[in-house]
């Protein structure tokens, strides 16, 4: 009877080095989590260096347009590649007994068949050799490559005949990067550092992720927001209404003559709100100083989608008549209501018909109106 051939065992994946970050860990951390881009970057192709700093430039906007849901994670030797979808926050208003910060919808604003692509460079792990230290810059001897440099030329500066254990950490890293396919190479090699420790490289990557993303609206994200949003979240956390920072600010019903708006203001909508039919009223608490100028502003009932920023900017430009008490102008708290509308072809035709002949040819915007509450 013929001997049975030995069973063929499936090859086991090579175990990760001690402390090395794994793709599975990143997936657990990122997939399906309520993430926000801390920098408010609006481009759909974003690249960050190994420290979590943006490479290049991107327009920035409200955090209400920067909710991200990651759908794919790929961990490479020299960078991490993420694909996801951008969401806008649409606040729905809230009853007096509800938490206004929770009355919000997440609306997908990335078009179908499109994705947000985010790439993060990684620190290079090299073999031990004499004199190495953690976090040395890759191009410390040769300077940062210019845009036109290629990796073959960079590799030529290394010691080609040396064995890996005899090469410097910078030369090892250059050799690694030059040997990698173009799509695997870091975007910003001039900022790459080297390390002996996979654990150190993993720590650098985790710190970069924390600089790029927040999980939910955490305290650091709130601290980076404009003051009008910080005041909103402070009031929501305390389950109370906004109170002016200056105790001398009076209420409208305690003065002899109330403050009033004497010019109209028209906060602009934006492409995201128009494309997703985001409309409605928003409320802002505004301190009108004795000089008639807006001082502290707090969001009271937001609308989201970047529209609250437009409303506050318009309030800042508006003109008010100050309140008067005992014959003197005094600061008061004034509530301003703004309604954003959806622009339509019908309203466009009316607006075009009534436009003066010498009016500037500007792109049409919704016609919000303003009001004030005592």
What does this structure look like?
The chain has 374 residues and is an alpha+beta fold. It folds into 2 domains: 16-225, no CATH class; 227-373, TonB (TolA/TonB C-terminal domain), CATH 3.30.2420. It contains 9 helices and 19 strands. The strands form 5 sheets. Strands 1, 2, 3, 4, 5, 6 and 10 form a 7-stranded mixed sheet that branches. The longest helix has 15 residues, at 198-212. It is elongated and about 85 Å long.
Short description:
With 374 residues, the chain is α+β, with helices and mostly antiparallel strands. The protein is 22% helix and 25% strand. 31% of the residues are buried.
What's the pLDDT, averaged over the residues? Answer: 79
Number of spatially distinct domains:
2
**Count of DSSP E strands?**
19
Straight-line distance between termini: 100 Å
Gyration radius over CA:
28 Å
Q: Work out the helicity level.
A: 10-25%
Q: List the helices and strands in order.
A: HEEEEEEEEHHEHEHHEEHEEHEEEEHE
Structural class: alpha+beta
How would you describe the shape?
A: elongated
**Low-pLDDT runs:** 5-15, 130-164, 345-374
Oligomer: single chain
Sheet-strand content, in percent, reads 15-25%
Tally of individual helices:
9
In this structure, how is the largest beta sheet organized?
7 strands, mixed
List the helices and strands and how they pair.
Blueprint: H1 23-30, E1 35-37, E2 45-48, E3 67-75, E4 79-91, E5 104-108, E6 116-121, E7 124-125, E8 136-137, H2 151-156, H3 169-179, E9 193-195, H4 198-212, E10 213-215, H5 219-224, H6 227-237, E11 250-251, E12 260-261, H7 271-275, E13 280-288, E14 294-301, H8 307-317, E15 320-321, E16 323-325, E17 328-330, E18 332-340, H9 345-353, E19 369-373
